[in-house]
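INFO  loader      accepted 1 record
INFO  loader      residues=516
INFO  predictor   begin
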Amino acid sequence: MSLKIPDPVIILDFGSQLTQNIARRVRELEIYSEVHPPFESADQIRNRKPRAIILSGGPASVFDPGAPTVDSGIFSLGVPVLGICYGMQLMAHLLGGKVEPAEVREYGVTPFLIQKGAGVPWTTLGDRSPVLMSHGDAILALPAGFQITGKTQSTAIAGMENRALNLYGVQFHPEVTQSLKGIPFLHSFLTDVAGIRPNWTLSGYIEREIDHIRETVGKDSLICALSGGIDSTVTALLCHKALGSRFQAFYVDNGLMRMGESEQIVRDLKELSLPLKSVDAGKIFLDRLKGVKNPERKRKIIGKTFIDVFWSEAMTLPVRPRFLAQGTLYPDVIESISHKGPSSMIKSHHNVGGLPKKNPFRLVEPLRDLFKDEVRRMGLKLGLPESFIRKQPFPGPGLAIRIIGSITPERLRVVREADRIVRETLSGHEISSTLWQYFAVLLPVQSVGVMGDQRTYENVIAIRAVSSQDGMTADVADLPHSLLGQLSHRIIAEVRGVNRVVYDISPKPPSTIEWE
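INFO  predictor   done
INFO  writer      dumping tokens
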């Protein structure tokens, strides 16, 4: 019997890339949340017994044909509702207010000015608290029964409420760190307005998922795609706890790993006492990727090849497994396919969109609704050492998506050696503790240079270094010029075939962290 899940805070997703940030912030307050599509009826939502409802932002305009909407009956459920950005505009629009394109579109951080008479949750913001605004439309007239609770220099209605109906709206984004007091605002809405007390912990999540794995697998066995990263390792520990001897982990060396990484991964995983079998499949992967330049094709080929290797290895086990565990996280899902709402697809991931439709295994994905920081905290609870927890993320397709264009043994050598230098140099610098990821990318261009008084025409390496909390957004790392100079000098001097190094200064969004 599964452990009882608390009644949720329901977040309706209107396509914002920040929807899951809202869910993450709510969970950080130890309150259970779920994300659902906006087209669910009011009766469906009532049956989920929500403690509160949050309407996310989104890229649409409420007056556009086909703009996502919601059953207006949710405003009569007697449940507190908070609309954020598009969610606030939609609330106003459906309840009789007026929304039109703003005379001045507002993007960036600006002070929020609380209006006289506004109580909780508005008082948590303080006067002139910085908030992140990102909207092209504005509310020009409130629905009946609402009052203005705040404004900005450019937006006359930046906050609204109907206390009698427990309906609230904010034009800013409280879920992002740029809104300095956004989290206290959310906390006050959930606790002071909705009356919710902490009901969700990672310890409870671990117990629930172990129980769920046992129920799902039953008396069968399960294998795990173990890459050596934090996501798949935590997945393997959960599955091993749940199933014991009916669990088998496979580490597949796809030939696309960083220098010396496969050997280190095998050593680390064996120290965790996981049942592990290492498979050298590099030749298979490289043969199938030969001549492939399109990044989506690369991911699809890698996903299918992983499954083929697992299937082949599964045939050698005494009992044929029916289940495959993967360390899929929610950022993987939201960037791959809009499975819960109209969020835009960015790219497929090898462990989401890259799997073949005729997958011989049933998938077990115990981390599918978690963010990276939650998985790291879970890893600590499961006994992983701090050094393992703090390893920077490495994509499942490996160096295949850090080589722009086709993959050859020579191009792999170049990016491996350059990446080694980037990691060695930055890991020994004090700035490394502030970085989420740092790596080298091999570009599909060559440039003219002069080396040893001779003309060269060789490869270009891009260095990527970003800071982030969860991988959903990322800022460019402000590396000192002297450090960038050191990286450039070492790469050009030590990596045969490179004569130029560039630094990527693109944040996410609009770019992604990886280049492919």
